[in-house]
Amino acid sequence: MEDTGGTGGSGGGGGDSLPPPFRAAVTALSETRPRPEVRISPLPAPKRLAPYAFALEAAVTEPDDAGVELADGRFVLLHDPQGQEGWRGTFRVVTLGRAELEPEIAGDPLLPEVTWSWLTGALEARGAGYGEASGTVTRSSSAFFGGLAERPAEEVLEIRASWTPEGSTPDASAHLTAWCELLCQCAGLPPETGEGTSVVQLPQRRGPH
């Protein structure tokens, strides 16, 4: 994801100077209340990607232990009243999500396709219309040596995705909630009752080393 230098959750001015569609979207994001396992907090907004931006970070924790983090990520809403090449709209969502995996799950050849389907399924389940979606799903392995040799190897799943919300004033809350559901599935938590169509789940991340 691009640099997110800035001083607050939103960029491109504030208050009444914001375009009404962007101001409404920021209000919706600020009022979104995802499932209890997800903690959301503001991030400095990127300054160079669009005239207006709003950024959040999220962490997914164990349902019964708020101190154990299972997944984390960033959600950025961009707005350019003139649109940008490739967006086919005036808004763009840019996201990053990460979770640690058990080795046997990380080796599943279908993992990238399944992970991407969690995103699209969550967006569709929330009625969050979108277009021009693109992204990557990456599996990485880390081995530790020297003073860190006692730590077991780590397998990490990372998904970077961006898409254009439909409409001149999109339902930003639906897009954020869908993304939070993706993070929960990456963390190994089941979808909330009645939401999404995914049935494949990953085991929860190993606890602290």
How would you describe this structure to a colleague?
This protein is α+β, with helices and mostly antiparallel strands and 209 residues long. It has one domain. It is 22% helix and 33% strand. Strands 1, 2, 3, 4, 5, 6 and 7 form a seven-stranded antiparallel beta sheet that branches. Strand 2 and strand 3 form a beta hairpin. Helix 3 runs antiparallel to helix 4.
In a few lines, what is going on in this structure?
With 209 residues, the protein is of the alpha+beta class. 22% of the residues lie in helices and 33% in strands.
**Helix run count:** 4
- Assign an overall shape: globular
Query: What gyration radius follows from the Cα positions, in whole Å?
Result: 17 Å
What distance separates the N and C termini? 28 Å
Helical coverage, percent range: 10-25%
Structural class: alpha+beta
Tally the structural domains: 1
- Topology, number of strands: 7
Largest sheet: 7 strands, antiparallel
Note the beta-strand portion.
25-35%
Question: Uncertain runs with pLDDT below 50, 5 residues or more?
Answer: 1-8, 194-199, 203-209
Rounded mean pLDDT is: 84
Summarize the SSE layout with pairings.
Blueprint: E1 10-11, H1 20-31, E2 38-43, E3 52-62, E4 65-79, E5 91-101, H2 103-106, H3 111-125, E6 130-142, E7 154-165, H4 172-186
Antiparallel strand pairs: 1-3, 2-3, 3-4, 4-5, 5-7, 6-7
Helix pairs in contact: 3-4
Which key features would you list for this structure?
alpha+beta, disordered C terminus, 209 residues
